[in-house]
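Researcher: Here's my situation. A collaborator sent me these components and asked whether they could plausibly form a single complex. I don't have experimental data yet, so a predicted model of the whole assembly would be a useful starting point for our discussion.
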Amino acid sequence: MHSKSKTFRGMLRRRFLQNLLAVPAAVMLANASLTAHADSANTTGLAVTDKTVTVGILHSVTGTMAISETGSVQAEKLAIEQINAMGGVLGRKIEYIQEDGASDWPTFAEKSKKLLIKDKAAAVFGCWTSASRKAVLPIFEQYNGMLYYPTFYEGLEQSPNVIYTGQEATQQILAGIDWVVKEKGAKSFFLLGSDYIWPRTSNKIARKHIDKLGLKVSGEEYYPLGHTQFNSVINKIKLKKPDVIFASVVGGSNVAFYKQLKAAGIDMTKEKPLVLTISVTEDEILGIGGENIEGAYASMKYFQSLTNDNNKNFVKAFKERWGDDIVIGDVTQAAYLGPWLWKAAVEKAGSFDIDKVRAASPGIELKTAPEGYVRIHENHHLWSKTRIGNAQADGQYKIVYETKDLIEPNPFPAGYQ
Amino acid sequence: MTKIQAFIGRYQLSHLLILAALLLVVMPLAMDIFRLNLVGKYLTYAFVAVGLVLCWGYGGILSLGQGVFFGLGGYCMAMFLKLEASSPEQTAIQSTPGIPDFMDWNQLTALPWFWEPFHSFGFTLLAVILIPALFAFIIAVAMFKRRVGGVYFAIITQAIAAILTILIIGQQGYTGGVNGITDLRTLHGWDIRTDSAKYILYFINAFLLIGCLFAARYIIKSKLGRLLVAMREREDRVRFSGYDVSSFKIFIYCIAAVFSAIGGAMFTLQVGFMSPSFVGIVPSIEMVIFCAVGGRLSILGAVYGTLLVNWAKTSFSESFPELWLFAMGALFIGVVMAFPNGLAGLYQTYVEPRLQRFKKSSDPALASDMDALKTAEIKPNKTKDTESAAEEYSHAGNQ
């Protein structure tokens, strides 16, 4: 990759030799560009040859987000390997270049630029947090790349250069609240989240929906990311006695929150109050400990315990590839959909060109999705079902409810803003 | 020609000229725009590192919170750019068009008062310099007038960095929170995302950095520079000589803050967003590391150190996404173990003596000039105790 150019070294005068220390660094930064192959399947100079097509994987494998994003990397690699085993995409094997976002949003921006400009990646599977997506979004739009983003997120966004394979906020929240109201007779809610855009937007939507149902929000509180002292809010909850704690606490804070909730004598299996979370997948339970969250409900689109054949095969393949101890959460499954949806769109378009893939994407359906069946909406989000799981002591969710129909994604919900 | 050579020799500007040539000619010729833009980003950190050479290397004031000023400068610029990117036409889908998107997500319905002045580019440019300078002034007056120094000062600066990060993240309706201020597009209608804009911004950045290097060199060469070294070594002696030590400290700390702020503003322009991840403790310490790798007594070393560390970071992480942090750790340990005076120290010990011999044989006129200068300087001491190491430091910095 890196080569020393001799031409300008000759130009330097001898007395300048003293600064040659800096020159190798300068030259090594200059990078040989990839030679791209152009034919009808690739008219825009993407990294596509007769035998291969190059895509990017961009997640944090170091830093605080690594624990969450590793599952997505594994899922994407598994999907790519499976697609290659089936003969690849348009007869080409998928090769991937993995970059580390290092839990640092500017690094995400730098690496996404590298994947698009230097590597000419035909698609990028990546990002996890909203902040990292926001950091790379202008770059994908400017250089016309295609990002498959796996995380459930706050909505309010619809980029022509992103396919959102996770749920936007209404898909996760509305059905969840409807369910606790209908099945559990909930009348009052306490909204609690980490302090950033996703919990705030989610709670905004939740609050509007609760208002519409004519029910009560008895409190709404936010704590900084990484916060570990929830005793005061737990006391407040005990005082206000809401029927439901609607929790969107993320990351490491979860561990503290659920342990302190249990220590404060709130037995979640008694459902007084009932805990409904939109942020704890099987991955997080690994950290929290199944015994600490037993009895809580989660509103997701996917649980590892789904019993359809697609999921059985997926879980089996995932464990064969990455080890028996592994658990699969909602986002991991959504990340697994990315390469498959891209493959389907490329084959429908007959081309790797971003514009053609984009045009072909709406209406793409995946009958082999572990979550059952998904379809890409005009707005680049997925139609998918919402399911309610009940946390078990073994760290898995028991599915207690799933919506009958696919729920339409609506990133800009009217009346909820 | 000889006159110019004499001038260059007298002020020992040759190293600076070489760096200028490297930044302004070699790099733009040798690199494509993507890599050049990365170098431009690294060079914005070099502003901070140069400021640290002044206040830490010379003044002995270790600040672990320079990210605060980098962030303030960057945020001022980002606020201006964000307002320009949030015209009512561009934000028509929001519930309140005309305010930045993140405010809309946080249920704000009007632009906060302190955002208003950032509609003006002139005000923004002033704010980039003055707000961090004022902030640094307040911190410095509060600390140095009370003779708080050394490790206590370092801890307090770190606390300030932490406080500011928490404040920015907590007030996300006003600041963009963890996401930062993203999706910046134009400056007075000029699209800063295009390749040509990136070239221009790179050159502006490089010129500003060279300007800062000149200013730093001027300060070091002046009486103030000598006083700083004296204060670092024996603060009470300087005080007993009748100097107001705290004023000098306040001044140099503000200068370092302004350099950082310029770097921050250029960062925002070149990278296209600003986020609290540049304000906190970790980036602040990283910037001290850049400075240390370069050699904390050499302003040019700081630039090379910044470039080296960041280049290593980028290329390690591209090649080994899962292992690069270990490689970076190894690099830092290696630097500290093998050449504690940084790149500048390495140059001093191994390269320069050979160069002198080489010059003497090839260019007698210049060599005699150099000899005259040499005799005026303190000979480096070979003993290994700390006093002599400090002398070597100041010697290294003065070349």
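Model: Some features of this prediction you could bring to your collaborator: The longest strand of chain A covers residues 52-59. Chain A has two domains: 33-164+306-384, 169-300+385-402.
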